[in-house]
Write the structure tokens for this entry.
Amino acid sequence: MASTRPRPTPAGYRCAECGWRTAKWVGRCPECQGWGTVQEAEPAAAGRVQAATVTPGRQAKPITEVPTDPVQRRRTGESEFDRVLGGGVVPGSVILLSGEPGVGKSTLLLAVASHVAAMGARVLYVSAEESLGQVRMRAERTGSLSPNLLLSAETDLAVVLGQIDQVQPQLIIVDSVQTVSTADATGIAGGPGQVREVAASLTRVAKERNIPVLLVGHVTKDGQIAGPRVLEHLVDVVCHFDGDRSTALRFVRAVKNRFGPTDEVGCFEMTGEGIAGVPDPSGLFLSRSIGTEPGTCVTLALEGRRAIPVEVQALVVDSHAPNPRLVVNGVDSARVAMLIAVLIKHAHIQLAGKDVYVSTVGGVRLTEPAVDLAIALALASAVTDRPLRPDLAVCGEISLAGEIRPVLQAARREAEAKRLGFGTMLGPDLAKLRDAILEAVTS
């Protein structure tokens, strides 16, 4: 007589990144395009899950009867970092800070650790990439020494958890999560299985003991966070630290935040003494030649909730090559090429057969369409060799028909322009590009 016991269903293979399943092993996941992420899955037992009895304390409640507890935040001492987090670190939260190598992630978190330690709290800084001496040298250079800041150079998760039990810290920093491994998971350090297990264990510690944990995450060549996608789902806050290493300016943006907004941006400046917040970056992207030299125009760009003045510079010269050159820095080259065509067609600006150079001041990159009008006016000023009005700031998107469209957060941009002393905010009140050029260029 044949057995009637349910047999385990074949599990096949599963992608550790996105969860895609297949019956046969493949080297590359067709869903997320990840190489080497398809692994053999555990067999699932056949059968139907039985419903459990719901106890009185776990019954569903109307949303109006659910009590709300105010979130108690802890300041990190870095006001710009607190701005991105929504006012500070929430106890029991797990924060992932990602960024390219050398951008300043360790320097920022070491400064945060020093500020929190100076407030009297014990901080455990786990350096899984550098030795204790290297971290001490950076702390001396940046003035981050504090007796409450405890260092540990460990790569074994079990030892890290033991350090947490012994130190009983109020803040934990792990640099980085991809270099810590555990014997309970398969694969090498940095692999999907290892990263998932390490992050899950640290998250469990944070929730059980109400201790905030800051994790440093590596990024891939295309700027994505290395490791499985489940890493971003496990943590509460995901911040990205970016900036051009040729300049001193750095930005911290919140990609995910369960306790606050994701439209805030923190501005930092890398110096020889470490990293410093820039609460008012209005003067970083302006030169001294505003309104005096042709080819310069000021726009108000949005970085999160901030309206930051940025100067756009343009240079137009006669071309001596068969194909004129278009060189840009800080703006989209395809967008500039479109604006050149609109200027030739609708504003009758002679740009054909000329080399065009467009750049921003300070190394900032402008991607929003609201900077179209500033680029167009800078080009018109450069080709006519006539400067724009010195008290002028512009914002506006330009269509292929030569029309100026309104921009998002126009009131916020206009208020910031008036605060900085710009008398005229040009763009939203004009409809045609040619009218804007006539209004902006001095006679």
